[in-house]
Amino acid sequence: DKPRSLSQIVSGVYDSPELKVRECMDGVYRVFCPYVGEIIPLAWSYTIFVVAVLLVPVALGILCLCAWKLDFETSPAVNEHTLDSLRTEPKKVDKPLQIEYAK
Predict the structure, then answer these.
(1) Phi, psi of 32 (to 5 degrees)
(2) How would residue 94 be classed by pLDDT, with cut points 50, 70 and 90?
(3) What top-level branch of life does the organism fall under (predicted)?
(4) What is the pLDDT of residue 14?
(5) pLDDT digit string (tens) for 46-85?
(6) DSSP string, the chain
(7) How far apart are CA 32 and CA 28, in angstroms?
């Protein structure tokens, strides 16, 4: 509850509500005691840190390298020899290539 007027603050008549305190494990009375337990063991936290700092960027780099490798231009499926065969003897070339170059 807050003081209602300036005179309550200046005169010191205002009595603030009591705060509930408790004795903590170190023998000091506080409103909130500090948390002493561990959330996860120290070895696990170091492991997670090392994985996050070292292995995640390496994995992302490998993933980007694979994507880059897949994005390379492939060599043309038809070389000069195949084009000559299509012009001179089309029956020796596969049907899909014949159809594609007939268009």
Answers:
(1) -125, 130
(2) confident
(3) Eukaryota
(4) 67
(5) 999 999 999 999 999 999 999 998 888 766 666 788 888 8
(6) ---SSHHHHHH--PPPPPPP-EE-TTS-EESSPPP-S-SS-HHHHHHHHHIIIIIHHHHHHHHHHHHHHHTSPPPPS--HHHHHHHHH-GGGS-HHHHHHHH-
(7) 11
Assigned token pair, 25: 């494990």
Residue 95, beta-bridge partner list: none
Pair of tokens at residue 21 = 């305190």
How far apart are the C-alpha atoms of 57 and 59, rounded to whole Å? Answer: 5
Residue type, 66: C
Residues 30, 21 contacting (CB under 8 angstroms) = yes
Question: In terms of Cα–Cα distance, which of 47, 26, 44 is closest to 35?
Answer: 26
